[in-house]
Design goal:
Distance between the termini: 49 Å
Helix content: under 10%
Oligomer: single chain
Strand content: 35-45%
Shape: globular
Number of helices: 2
Number of strands: 29
Length: 412
Amino acid sequence: MKIRLACRGRDDHVSDFCGFFRARCHRSALLGDLLFRALVIGAAFLAASTLVGCGGGKSSQPARVSRTAKVWRVPALVDRSNVYAADAAGKLSRVVRRDPALVYVPNSLSNTVYVISQRTLKIVRRFPVETRPQHVVPAYDLKTLYVTSDLGNSLQPINPATGKRSGSPIPVADPYNLYFTPDGHYAITVAELLKRLDFRNPHTMRLAFSLPVPTCPGVDHADFSADGRYMYVSCEYLGAMIEIDLSRHRVIHTLNLTPKPASPQDVKLSPDGKILYVADQDRGGLWEIDARRFAVIGFLPTGKGAHGLYPSRDARVLYVSNRIAGTISVVSFATRQVMHTWSLGSSSPDMGGVSADGKTLWLSGRYNSEVYVIDTRTGRLRARIPVGSGPHGLSVWPQPGRYSLGHTGILR
């Protein structure tokens, strides 16, 4: 039976509800996470956007889009030569200084969040969340953490001052990931299945408008230019990147990554703002992209399944998790070369972050139901902490910085 909804109404909530309904309807027919991914990849290669049994293959239309030019007030960089200068060890904002040092682990297959003490390395709390939590994301103002549940079509707020859930889940269509514009005006939920970016009120998550990205199947991860005017987004299933002008809310460039296969994942800007590093799990390394020209200038092999990217607190190196190889590559920003490779043994290092003092790298073990605690001075694996099934985008909290751009903790 096909059901069609009138999703072109003027009310913001109508568009959001339609996206919510379509996501639920489509996903209820899936047999599991692997089947879901296979179907989406197949659709990308066929250049189609098919919603099984739900009708309507196109992304929802923008809800009452305002094209009025806004005045950008992105906070000035602390150091123009280093976008991460505000993220140095110990530079905690007054907002987060009293927050307990915890690690929040979303377990995608067991639909739970585990909370780990950074001091004792013990699990101090567990709580259930909606279906398939993907990432734990700090809000722009650093006062809330959000658990993004894409199959559950919701964001679960967490109070970082207590480490506990704060209120009920917020209904949001298909939130695989969550970002914030550098001026703090919008939250951006990454609706991977719906192939769109939803711009929302950063406090209430009420939908302002949607930006369809039909040419970016597998829209996943992102970072922003040094001046905050542009957003760079990976298209996992197409093997491409897109550049978005945030002042015009428009995709202005598409960069096809060749040769294939290519499967871009996490995205990070170099400290000087000149190079974008993009992890590619199929090619086992990092694409190097000139941020100004939006053109590939190199490729750096790191290891099979290159996935997550995390700058050190002194902004000298980039930690790369190689999920299939079970290793961490330490890349020098200055030389653009791999300095060290740390082996974790049997493991699947995925997403995570660096502790506030810079001494510890925390990563989820996606296929091993564990979390890895790594000494950044030596590369020694300090601990393996058993968690739920399918741990993914864990967040280390608190982190230094003045404001959050999203994901598991991109702060500036």
